[in-house]
Specification:
The protein is of the alpha/beta class and 300 residues long. It has 10 helices and 17 strands. Strand 13 and strand 14 form a beta hairpin. Helix 3 crosses helix 4. The chain is globular.
């Protein structure tokens, strides 16, 4: 079976945790045995998020007085592909995966005129109290927005149109290689008269994962995050987990863009296009989410 697994950036770095490397490696080490078993028995593509990580790099770049200007987000996305991909590769190998795992630095083409450039929605970086977030917004020119009880930076998240390295990924899969692809949704690039160039954005990794799953003819799209399932009426006394849903019913639900909205959009797009199955659940329950006994399962 061919499976595309999307690892959320927040699954590697949980809310409230310090953004230290060893914290994130520990989460991957704990999840790696289940991921390795899946990769041993199937053709697997892993797409990881990078919201907390790319925001950290952006903050470091902004604070570096040796630079004439901060590094662009597209460059920082490429950096996160390298470091997180390395962590994933090493964790899978140490967990016993006999297949080779390879990270591809991946470019995702977006539309330079996508309206998303004017309405930032993608949360990146750490959380701040409102006053501190507004101070950072004034000093840096960033956009900030409330995320739960705290505030975070938001950046444009244009829709992925095309993943440029898919042909290489296909060749690797056919030769028994587990592929870590399009980390952070892929390095966001636009096509112009002089070729490709990066843009100030972070593509939603779930949307890119769905595109990849469709183009690579995957049987299953799995989105692993830091919650056990999707909750209806989340944050209220009436909240309850959603275990199974069909694509038609899913179309009638709405979620904020920065929460489960992108995951549901990605799941619906994949299921309706391929008639395959999509699942959303916790990184800690990887095996059960993949087998369909945990998380939120989406089918026609």
């Amino acid at each position: 079976m061919r499976i595309v697994i999307a690892l959320g950036g927040n699954a590697l770095l949980r809310r409230g945790e310090r953004p230290d490397a060893d914290v994130q490696v520990a989460h991957l080490t704990a999840a790696a045995p289940a991921l390795a078993k899946v990769a041993e028995d199937n053709e697997v593509v892993i797409v990881h998020g990078n919201g907390p990580q790319v925001g950290l790099l952006a903050l470091e770049s902004f604070a570096d007085t040796s630079l004439s200007k901060p590094y662009p987000l597209s460059d920082l996305v490429a950096e996160t592909q390298g470091v997180i991909g390395y962590w994933v590769q090493q964790a899978l190998t140490n967990a016993g995966l006999s297949r080779r795992a390879v990270t591809l630095v991946t470019q995702t083409v977006v539309d330079a005129y996508d309206p998303a450039f004017n309405v930032p929605t993608k949360y990146v970086g750490t959380s701040y109290p409102e006053e501190r977030a507004r101070e950072l917004a004034l000093s840096s020119g960033w956009s900030v927005r409330q995320d739960g009880t705290e505030w975070r930076r938001v950046v444009p998240s244009p829709a992925p149109q095309r993943v440029l390295e898919l042909d290489a990924a296909e060749l690797l899969l056919q030769n028994g290689v587990t592929v870590i692809l399009a980390g952070g949704g892929g390095v966001p690039v636009v096509e112009g008269p002089t070729g490709l160039h990066g843009v100030e954005a972070v593509v939603d990794k779930d949307a890119t994962a769905a595109l990849i799953a469709i183009e690579l003819r995957a049987d299953l799209l799995v989105m692993l995050t830091d919650v056990p399932a999707v909750y209806l009426d989340y944050g209220t006394p009436a909240q309850r987990p959603l275990h199974k849903i069909d694509a038609e019913t899913l179309a009638g639900l709405t979620f904020p863009p920065g929460s489960m909205g992108p995951k549901f959009s990605a799941a619906r797009h994949f299921v309706e296009t391929t008639h395959g199955r999509a699942a959303i659940g916790s990184l800690d329950d990887t095996t059960a989410v993949i087998t369909g006994t945990s998380g939120t399962q989406i089918q026609l």
